[in-house]
Amino acid sequence: NAGVTQTPKFQVLKTGQSMTLQCAQDMNHNSMYWYRQDPGMGLRLIYYSASEGTTDKGEVPNGYNVSRLNKREFSLRLESAAPSQTSVYFCASSEVGGRVGKLFFGSGTQLSVL
Amino acid sequence: AQSVTQLGSHVSVSEGALVLLRCNYSSSVPPYLFWYVQYPNQGLQLLLKYTSAATLVKGINGFEAEFKKSETSFHLTKPSAHMSDAAEYFCAVSGGNQGGKLIFGQGTELSVKP
Lengths: 114, 114
Fold this sequence. Notes:
- The complex is a heterodimer of chains A (114) and B (114).
- With 114 residues, chain A is mainly β.
- Chain A contains no helices and 11 strands.
- In chain A, strands 2, 4, 5, 6, 9, 10 and 11 form a 7-stranded mixed beta sheet that branches. A 4-stranded antiparallel beta sheet of chain A has the order 1-3-8-7, with no helix packed on it.
- Chain A starts with a strand and ends with a strand.
- Chain B has 114 residues and is an all-beta fold.
- The interface between A and B is medium-sized, with 30 and 27 residues.
């Protein structure tokens, strides 16, 4: 019973490097989300995908791109990493959208940008 | 726009004492409200949710929260703290045409002293 799986768990980048964070869910959920967690700021929504084939910006989308590859997978790409993107990134999914359903979270990716 | 404010970034209680974590929300539409818990090095998991059915909501692990529209509050309580309750707690709001996404508060870290 995997739930939401994120890879990698840890990553160190140099400023300007690019990388893609992978997320997959096996619960047949329609909606998927990417959040970042920073001390004292809670979780902030980067991008979300209400259903397969759609993506929308959240609160802090600058510097990121996303791809909803299929119903299971939702990736987050940093094209040119900056130190301000040092954070813990969480992927989440929900069945009918967060309003009435509940979000299932992955275990997170700790990213450091030097 | 919706927002959530959690009062107190850190709360410390003794084992067996009352736990009270405060959350106030702002929403232009009837909100759905949530409490999530994050144990160390893990993703978030849902404690309880308010979806306009009953103002007193009971969740897992003995936690409950009361929705008070007049005070725009959704405080989390537990009558008797246990050592295993030590974690970070997040209040979140969803509502309106938001695509199902949740807006999280800054988080409150709960410590439980023996």
